[in-house]
Amino acid sequence: MSENDIESELLSMLVEAGPRKAKYISEAVICSVILNINTKKKGRSYILLFDTHVHLNARQFKDDRDATIKRAQEAGVTKMVVVGFDEETINLAMEITEAYDFIYAAVGWHPVDAIYYKDEHLEWIEELSKHPKVVAIGEMGLDYHWDTSPKDVQVEVFRKQIRLAKKLNMPIIIHNREATDDIIRILQEENASEVGGIMHCYSATRKELQACLDMNFYISLAGPVTFKNVKEVKEVAKVVPLDKLLIETDAPYLAPHPYRGKRNEPAYVSLVAKEIAALREIEYEKLCQITTENALRLFRIK
Ligand SMILES: [Zn+2]
């Protein structure tokens, strides 16, 4: 593809979107087009983005899932992990991973829904984990923000899933909301370091970073790193060892600036990458390459 081709492709995308929508897609798309041109000039292959945590299985994408996936591809996102967290979303995650060769799945039980968990769900998750495109167990963890499930029930469901991931030798995806101390203690007690995994949408402070790294966990940053008033996550972004850093959207939630409050989508992972690259004062292209390599290694995708 020549530069002229890219430019005309960009132009046709904008025309197709129309003047009102073009405003929204342009930033992510332009970013990837420039990236593409730069890497071509340097004679390297196209550097790719990996959205390590996305809920394309959420109701918010019911009507335009295919178009959302297309926009992500146009923005340079070529790999994603769709995360299932209850019966409905796990089923959909499996359907989506079957339909798209570049989309992988993770299966687990969310702490908010711990109250609805039954042991047969764990057996089901174990069965699904054998699918070649299921790359992690989760999301799982603790959520002390919502009180739909009592803490002791959340802890029990969390521990059972850690044990399953260890039995299967698969990485774990951790959801943590206002529960950092308990999450770290339980991961230590259960020897989760044997499998490691991802601290998804890392929201703890620099202080807890080392404990997570010591247990072989990668640190995944999402939209909040782009928020003007979220200082600690920006500090975290500067100090996470580069070989332990991942990026994600957690779409449809937590849209990055300037889309904060709107529906998030995987195309916007480029904005997360851009912000981290700026904070660390490294090339955007390099940040994309390293985080993608990290994700491929962690999920054992060849
Ligand atoms: Zn999630």
At a glance:
The chain has helices spanning 3-41, 65-74, 87-99, 119-128, 151-168, 180-189, 209-214, 231-239, 269-280, 284-298, and strands at residues 49-54, 77-84, 103-107, 134-143, 172-177, 197-199, 217-221, 245-247. By secondary structure, the protein is α/β, with parallel strands linked by helices.
On the 0-100 scale, what is the average pLDDT?
91
Structural class: alpha/beta
Bound molecule kinds, no repeats: zinc ion
- Spatial ordering of strands, largest sheet: 1-2-3-4-5-6-7-8
| SSE succession | HEHEHEHEHEHEHEHEHH
Sheet with the most strands, sense and barrel status = 8 strands, parallel
Q: What is the helix content?
A: 40-55%
Oligomer classification: single chain
**Uncertain residue ranges:** none
What's the number of extended β-strand segments? Answer: 8
The share of residues in extended strands comes to: 15-25%
The rough form would be described as globular
Distance between the termini: 25 Å
Integer-rounded radius of gyration: 19 Å
How many helices? The count is 10
